[in-house]
Design a protein that fits this description.
4 strands; 11% strand; 144 residues; four-stranded antiparallel beta sheet; alpha+beta
Amino acid sequence: MKTMKETLRSSKGFTLVELSVVIVIIGVLAAFGVPRFRNAVEKSKAGEAFNYLAAIRSAQERYHSRAGTYAATPQELDISLSTNKYFTVGAIDATDLETGWKLTLTRTGPSAGYGNYTVTFTEDGYDATGPAPVIPDAINPMAT
């Protein structure tokens, strides 16, 4: 018959050291993975602004070819715009609609620690020098 001491020594299971090593490995993986995941999620949300503004840009070019000027409001364009979930739409800069336009979207709500950044398009496309704070490169779908 085995004694209590012999039974405890022969029992199968994990030691505290083995469990600690596994917890440390999981922590290290999470430390690298969580920020990348948050950036990927925010980048997909920023894609909403880029898709919206690209549609506006295409519609503006069609409008310009018909009317000889750019539209002063998105409602004048020949597209049906969806409601943005993560961005608020500014007004089209109508300084000189015969030669150009500018439209800025501003991020609202929590943004994975990036704050309320802006995305701006002009008649030439994405404007990286738009009003501050501009979209950070880490989450910019147009960044290389």
